[in-house]
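To whoever picks this up:

The nightly regression suite flagged ATP-grasp domain-containing protein as changed. Nothing in the input moved, so I suspect the structure step. Input below, exactly as stored in the fixture:
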Amino acid sequence: MGTDTESDTPTLLLVGGARAVSLSVGMVGDALAQAAAHGLATHVTGPAAALAATPTVIDAADAVSAVEFADPAATRAWAARQAWRGRGFDLVFALQEMAQVAVAEAAEELGVAGNPPDAVRRIRTKDLCRNALAEAGFVQPRVRLCTDTDEALAFAAEFAGPWVIKPRDAMGSIGVSLVRDAALLAEAVGELPEPDRFLIEQFVSGPEFSVEGVFLDGEPRVFAVTAKDKAEPPYFVEIGHTLPAGLSETDEARVRETVTSALRTLGLRVGAFHVELWLTDEAVVLGEVHGRYGGDWIHRMLEYAFPGLELYGTVFQDMLGRYQGPKEFVAQRGAAVRYLTPPPGRLVRIEGWDEVAAHPAVIYSELSARPGATLGPLRKSSDRAGLLVVGAQDSAAAEKLARELVEAVRFTVEPDAPDTD
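Regenerated output under the current build:
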């Protein structure tokens, strides 16, 4: 559709802006900086409250408009009005998970590079994605959409456990739990944000990984496979990642082939991807599929492992049909992130943090807990108390050092007083 008729400068519409957390603000800031470096004008949209809470994003953009991305039709209609007024956009992008459908709708309306809206809705709806992959011959755990505990019990009677209870559409491990006894299903359902619409699926046993990459000329290109470390069940909070994963050549090849084949099957063709999976003796079992870069500071790990890599500039240039860089990627270094997970209770004291954060191998550090705070049990990503991203000559060295540095941070926690009522 083109940009403002009075200018030949390509314009990027960045839908959703950033959430008011350091990870999201940092990623959006990097994306805007790389857009500017490639000569793009930038226009950020998002809810008014979110825009007001992220002033650095507003300052970095050329234009800002309050548009609710949770309503994809509203974003599409707004983009159409802008184009009718001669203020069109040449590419549409988002970093937030919940903005991906709005991006697809706007791109289709504008006639610019984008993923089909139906394909994005499919991967955003976990059971629909599972069903599509299973129908195409990919190994998938059995899954069912439920509206109450009785339906979950019926599933458990039909398919052997353990089982995983999870929201149909959420992120950050919110509401996800492992259930080994059908008698405990009701309790797990009660912890869900929406207990009247949720998924139950068979638990898959095996090491977990994710695959990071981009689409170039419509084809998925893998940057790296990332090893994932999770807290002990019943919850599935991620407490560490290592990149590259250090798989054997055979396992690396079958992971890459399965993921790229699945992305083609699902109809994705533009932007970035982050695909989660389990590696069992029998198969690569695909988990969630995301049409965006991964969270948990994986972007910082990629930038360290691939010196000079432009995560966002690469996508923007491809969307404009201008990408001239490599299409095969080999990591030159290794990186790891580890999260701080002190026990629950009242936090009295933190020791060793300043020394650890100052270590020369630390790429990024963040401490979100402070003395005096009450720490809850580790049930979702936001319950983590901080993190360290570490770089080294290879991934094994990065993971080892990250573990050592996290262990050097000492938390003194007083257990919560028992309820005497």
